[in-house]
Design a protein that fits this description.
Largest sheet: 7 strands, mixed
Radius of gyration: 21 Å
Bound molecules: pyridoxal-5'-phosphate
Oligomer: single chain
Shape: globular
Strand content: 15-25%
Helix content: 40-55%
Order of helices and strands: HHHEHHEHEHEHEHEHEEHHHEEHEEEH
Number of strands: 13
């Protein structure tokens, strides 16, 4: 690197590991001239709700105007639906932006940000980018080890990230387990509950995170329109948390962080309960389809509850995922997230899953 730049950039930024996105489907199709299926980024295979598409199209008529930076109508609707106050809702350019903002607002050099190994890489990036120290605790049996995390809290800990369900393992912890954990978290520590896959989880006792928000606890709940709502390309998500903290985040965020078509699409998507239900059912059936085949092939996997599965192949998967692309199937090798012998596959439609299973079976 240019030596002058190296001295201008803070040292804690120079060593950052970049986020590694899934390969875009267009790129693979261009390279291989095959129709590909992308099961690499936990996107909804059914796409967005038709109502959302129509709303986004209609909103384009006013695209010469700046959007409502405060997202009044969407925040109002989310607040009413979720039973929180409007001032407890903040919109983000995907929930990724809210992860970044939370770390920026709460961490400074000398602080510690705590999370799990084998979890969402943006936690690591945002903690380190704020100049704070990243502290991680190993997963236990592929799941967040809340007991070990509570023990890892020090007087410097300011922020804790919990992915529930955890990406990339798909495991979850219960609301009771979280309550126990929160009793061990000191008052000056904020806990981020990243519930990007909330709508997929059917397990009893999974989450009471909204109660915590209503009671004004020091938690931020993150949800997104990127996953079950099928709008990852629109870049819109939201956070729920203490007003006073959201006030600061609102001052720091870019004033027009969400676009008017995205806000309109999100409003319409909330109305399309049928689309969400259909997406959930497609995912449930797809999970059964894949699990049944993996059992038959005697392949190990983590029984995740979200819209993806972590599959352990017992050998390094960097080349494996590359090889699978030749079959026109994009999955994610997981070394960079801490699982060198695993791939993560998103649950797709029945025929997409079939393509993946056929490629897997041919390769094994
Ligand atoms: C996909 C995902 C997000 C959401 O990302 P967006 O920025 O909303 O698209 C957040 N957290 C986790 C753990 C995820 O897997």
């Amino acid at each position: 690197m240019n030596k002058t730049i190296e001295h201008m950039v803070p040292p804690y930024l120079l060593g950052l590991e970049p986020y590694v996105p899934g390969m875009p489907i267009e790129e693979l199709e261009r390279e291989l001239r095959v129709r590909a299926v992308k099961l690499a980024s936990n996107e909804n295979p059914l796409g967005p709700s038709p109502l959302a598409m129509e709303a986004a199209r209609a909103a384009m008529a006013n695209a010469h105007r700046y959007p409502d930076g405060g997202g009044f109508y969407l925040r109002q609707k989310l607040a009413a639906k979720l039973g929180v106050e409007m001032e407890q809702v903040i919109l983000g350019l995907g929930s990724s932006e809210l992860i970044d903002l939370t770390s920026r607002v709460l961490l400074r050099p000398g602080d510690e940000g705590l999370t799990s190994d084998g979890s969402f890489p943006l936690y690591y990036i945002s903690i380190r980018a704020s100049g704070a120290k990243l502290v991680t605790v190993p997963l236990q049996n592929y799941a967040s080890d809340l007991d070990a995390m509570a023990r890892a809290i020090t007087p410097h800990t300011k922020l804790i990230y919990l992915s529930n369900p955890n990406n990339p393992t798909g495991t979850f912890f219960t609301a009771d387990a979280l309550d126990e954990f929160l009793q061990r978290v000191p008052a000056g520590v904020m806990v981020v509950l990243d519930e990007a896959y909330f709508e997929y989880v059917e397990q009893m006792g999974y989450s009471r995170s909204l109660d915590l928000v209503r009671r004004g606890r020091n938690v931020i709940v993150l949800r997104t329109f990127s996953k079950i709502y099928g709008m990852a390309g629109m870049r819109i998500g939201y956070g729920l948390g203490p007003k006073e903290l959201l006030d600061v985040m609102n001052k720091l965020r870019s004033p027009f962080n969400t676009t008017s078509p995205a806000q309109a699409a999100a409003l319409a998507a909330l109305d399309d309960v049928e689309h969400v239900k259909r997406s959930m059912e497609t995912n449930r059936a797809g999970r059964e389809q894949i699990i049944e085949a993996l059992d038959r092939m005697r392949v190990d996997y983590v029984p995740g509850v979200a819209n993806f599965l972590l599959i352990e192949l017992g050998r390094d998967t960097a080349d494996f995922a590359g090889e699978m692309m030749k079959y026109g199937v994009i999955v994610r090798p997981m070394r960079w997230m801490g699982f060198p012998n695993a791939i993560r596959v998103t649950i797709g439609t029945h025929s997409e899953n079939e393509r993946f299973l056929q490629a897997l079976s041919a390769m094994l």
